[in-house]
Design brief:
The protein has a single domain, classed as Domain of unknown function (DUF427) (Metal Binding Protein, Guanine Nucleotide Exchange Factor, Chain A). Helices cover 0% and strands 41% of the residues. The protein contains no helices and 15 strands. It has a seven-stranded antiparallel sheet, with no helix packed on it.
């Protein structure tokens, strides 16, 4: 679990209960933390990825984004697709779709910034496009469609992407 850094949460932020984290306690710039819980990703009934060595990127106002090591991805399940985006912290992202589809379900950073160099080629999945699980709990996608944060019962917000959060 992420430890509160002593920063002051805004008045509108939910107070975390026992075993919970507030996205308002996450830092900016973001940090990368190891997560030993079992993470699984399914496309339908097919297990696409599984690991107990995930890493989470934690950034103020956003639910964690989970990254999985490349060797945890089922060989031949993903293929590159057109599209790129730029993260001010990590650099240029590349996108991946399930084989024989065109909709991106995942992304990675082939040449990340120095701060996130250990994420080179690790893969993050959109939990609204494939079924993602953390320690057996089905992940809910971060609202808004663009971001890939993973919402679980141990994360409280409100989070970036919800209605009325565009100014964050």
């Amino acid at each position: 679990m992420w430890k509160h850094t002593g920063s002051k949460r805004p008045d509108f932020a939910s107070i975390p209960g026992p075993g919970q984290e507030s996205v308002w306690d996450y830092p900016r710039p973001p940090v990368l933390v190891d997560d030993p819980r079992r993470v699984e990703v399914y496309a339908g009934n097919t297990l696409v990825a599984s690991t107990d060595r995930a890493r989470r990127v934690l950034e103020t106002a956003s639910p964690p984004t989970f990254y999985l090591p490349p060797e945890s991805i089922l060989a031949g399940s993903l293929e590159p697709v057109a599209g790129e985006s730029w993260c001010e912290w990590k650099g240029e992202a590349r996108y991946y779709a399930l084989v024989d589809t065109l909709t991106p379900v995942a992304w990675s950073y082939p040449d990340p910034s120095k701060q996130f160099a250990s994420l080179r080629d690790w893969v993050a999945f959109y939990p609204g496009r494939v079924a993602c699980f953390v320690a057996g709990e089905r992940v809910r996608p971060q609202p808004g469609g663009f971001y890939g944060g993973w919402i679980t019962d141990d994360v409280v917000g409100p989070v970036k992407g919800e209605p009325g959060t565009g100014h964050w």
